[in-house]
Fold these 2 entries.
Entry 1:
Amino acid sequence: MMNIITTIDELQKVIKEMKTQNKQIGFVPTMGYLHEGHRALMKKAREENDVVVLSIFVNPLQFGPNEDLESYPRDFVRDQDAASAEGVDIIFYPTPAEMYPEELSVTIQVRKRTDALCGASRPGHFDGVATVLTKLFHLVQPDRAYFGKKDAQQAAVVEGLVKDFNFPLQVVPVDTVREPDGLAKSSRNVYLSEKERKEAPALYRSLQLGEELIDSGETNPETVISAIKDKILTETSGEIDYVNLLSYPNLENMDTIQGTCIIALAVKFSKARLIDNIILTREQEEA
Ligand code: AMP
């Protein structure tokens, strides 16, 4: 039987019990409106742990003043079915008042890996993510926590948080799950108009074009970036927020493409801002 827990008190009681029984806990933090991407995380957690805890919490701290906190899609009834089908043991589903009864006196500030990509266009976003995860990691005390590579910058920030604050858990990255036409699954895809939905697979195709250019020997990041931008502008009506090519996981600019890097983009459609990325490794040339 899946246990739905809405209070911190109850969660702490149940987790304490699990710990005395030496159960391995797998944790999947989400904002709900679950799709196949979230389900891949739950599946992996189910395979690797005795107990799977899923959290569903649309975290106000990680939304900017002009972002979609109010309109973020929610459907807890449907989410319960998805969680139960994936064998989740506990859903933690707190209200914002339960998580933040009053303004926090201490928050986490992320100092690296946030100058670029979404960190640059969403100031404070990753501080909000790191702060809520700090609370959730303390509450759930997972052995493993599962994060999608779709949010690659988030995964990189979480790696830093876990390392710097010595959380005794392993971060497990999970590959991006896509629609058959290549569009990365996202809770925000429901906000695409019919026309935009048809255009949106061009985002992934443009990333693939970038990868092909690199595979065929291109070493200049700017050349790859402009080819990707051209393709997005020709094939979609979206407005480019950013297209960038950086080292991964440190997310630093490179003069020449080498080692492990990420090509990442964010594009704004009328009601949804979509992100996607590809992580690839270019072998070092022999000196
Ligand atoms: P969210 O509910 O959007 O905050 O996402 C919760 C978790 O699911 C994060 O670790 C995301 O990276 C992951 N996730 C979201 N979309 C996908 C996807 N298409 N494939 C894999 N993981 C995903």
Entry 2:
Amino acid sequence: MNYDRILIRYGELSTKGKNRKVFIYKLRRNIKKVLRDFEQIEIEATRERMFILLNGEDGQEIVERLKGVFGIQSFSPAIKTDKEIENMKDAALSLFQRIYQEGNTFKITTKRSDKRYHLDTNGVNQLFGAHLLTNIPGLKVDVKKPDINLQIEIRHEAVYFSCENILGAGGLPVGSSGKGMLMLSGGIDSPVAGYLSMKRGVEIEAVHFYSPPFTSERSKQKVLDLSEKLANISGAVKLHIVPFTAIQQLIQQKVPENYSMTTTRRLMLKITDEIRKRNDGLAIITGESLGQVASQTLESMYAINDVTNTPILRPLITMDKNEIIDLAQMLDTFDISNRPFEDCCTVFVPASPKTKPKKEKVQYFESKIDFDTLITQAVEDTEVITIAPKSVEENEVSDLF
Ligand code: ATP
Ligand code: MG
């Protein structure tokens, strides 16, 4: 008997009725997206568990993909049977024989949510333990450190047998916490910040500022490639590319050099906030880490944050660079971020930006300059691209949302 399904245990999940529904709905949708090329599978969702019915599809590949889906605590390839003892015994034995190797020890763990079932967990353990011991010569029990843990779940509707518990990615299903705009540069930090927000259920739309011809097509390609990595996790990512050249040139002409970085950041944040409003986002996400560079001192953040009340999520704020790099490597974005192409901020960055800018000063400088027309223009001229995960063909992009 082969595995016929994968049993999925939900991650951290509020017990409140409505949240639970959203959680399950989003998780189901996200799983469907990452498994969209397995045409035969069916997904069954209940309040307690989710099942992927394999219907002959390749379970191994599906297992690999599920490992990256947020909102899954753990999952197990499983066999379902009815409650006829003989059918249950057959399933237990054939499942066991598939993975048993000579010398292996075992134990049985039974969960019984069907309280009316005529055997209690000890009774089930004994019955099936004896069945395996009789049929597999030399098999030994080890309740502390077994090689194989046969899990039997007796639920109301059926019985499930499984032998492996595979760790899921944890977190909350992407989209169950609302939408945030990720300020995505070509650097190492911001993709990691996007990943960590997704882990807590935030759906990401990326916003990237570029300044042609000072930044090249190749640096734009970096951002497209980084977005694809994020899309592999969430199923799809919308990328807003904001033309920023005119604004940066005006800043360079009119704002005193040591304040130009502060103004640049303020305007980026302001424009991102406008794009957020138009796309029903609830937050802005950045890759800032406290004290990492001049724009990331508390004084700088205080002066920059002044342009909006929108919550700004900074998942990396307390992390050291090494910790961020480890995550970037795990995410497979590190090599892309490390490609040596120019970013709009590095091109225009002054030699000595103020590390302790004063909010009142930067407000004063900006009050003398008419940025509004250019800001409106930049928002209007923003190009929107939908980035699909690697496995999706171009003509399928429209049904990703
Ligand atoms: P990263 O490695 O993400 O580029 P960084 O250490 O280079 O970060 P900064 O250049 O100071 O730091 O940028 C801080 C944050 O501002 C970035 O993490 C990102 O969220 C945002 N940001 C910077 N440049 C851009 C850009 N060109 N487009 C969009 N967001 C940007
Ligand atoms: Mg950067």
